[in-house]
Specification:
alpha+beta, 4 helices, elongated
Length: 156
């Protein structure tokens, strides 16, 4: 019997496979797109942060009540109108502060929208990092185990 070398069908071969540190073309494309998006966001960072403060702090609205009167001067319809003109908002706030009782003055009131705490959490996470979620698990022998889950750092 001849001593022939058996042909290798699998296993490690020198120089084969992706080079160390090499990335899949789809991964390279995704990283390129993410970097472009990151640059666009960085260019607009200040206005984006200011915009995030609005829901985090809550929002106030000034409304004016417009009355429709009939021929006899009786009010037949009231409409609550959102005031958007800065000059009229200033006049309304002055009138509210002075406690005006002049019947010729328009009637104004202020309504508030509560802060959105998801926006507060988002802003805090940007400054202090994502908080860790804790999960308490009891095993069959009754011992309490605490597991800390940090969702912001994927395993490698």
């Amino acid at each position: 019997m001849e001593n022939t070398k058996k042909k290798q069908n699998g296993g490690k071969r020198p120089g084969a496979g992706r080079k160390k540190g090499g990335k899949n073309p789809a991964t390279l494309e995704r990283e390129k797109v993410l970097e472009e998006i990151r640059q666009q966001i960085m260019q607009r960072a200040a206005p984006l942060v200011r915009a995030a403060f609005i829901p985090a702090m809550g929002v106030n609205f000034v409304y004016r009540i417009d009355e429709t009167k009939n021929e006899k001067g009786r009010v037949v319809h009231k409409e609550h109108v959102l005031v958007e003109d800065p000059h009229e908002i200033a006049m309304a706030l002055d009138q509210i502060e002075e406690g005006s009782t002049d019947p010729e003055d328009k009637y104004y009131y202020v309504s508030s929208k509560a802060p959105d705490f998801r926006a507060v959490d988002m802003l805090m996470a940007r400054v202090f990092g994502k908080s860790k979620d804790m999960l308490e698990v009891t095993n069959p022998d009754g011992n309490l185990k605490t597991i800390i889950i940090n969702k912001s750092q994927p395993k490698k």
